[in-house]
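During the no-cost extension, the postdoctoral fellow (Dr. R.K.) reprocessed legacy sequence entries with the updated structure-token encoder. One reprocessed record is reproduced below for audit purposes.
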Amino acid sequence: MNESNPPALDATIHHPTRLTMTAFLAGCAEAEFATVRDYCAISDASVSRIVTALEQAGYLHVRKGYLGRRPRTWLSLTQEGRAALDRHLAALQALAATARQAGTHTGQPQPDPSTAPRQG
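Re-encoded structure tokens follow.
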């Protein structure tokens, strides 16, 4: 990869909250709306907006049903959504690797991570 050909980040899932939701859903077959909302620490309205965008992109499947008498909504990534997440994560890794490599070729001394001040 070179500077004129950056990795292909997925604009649909690039936003941190969308990426968080997508990554969470990649770890399970499906999850209830409220579980996703609580994990992402966002409002119902935000989950709904993100679900709509991901569903329109073909990345998310929405299943509605009942648990007893209570209506529920379950969310799951489609195969396309899982593939998009994999490509996006690979692009992030490639971007980071390229940046690290470019940093080693600048002629500037690189900081020693073992001597860096600790945050926190």
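The longest strand covers residues 60-67. The CA atoms of residues 63 and 74 lie 5 Å apart. The remaining legacy entries will be reprocessed before the final report is submitted.
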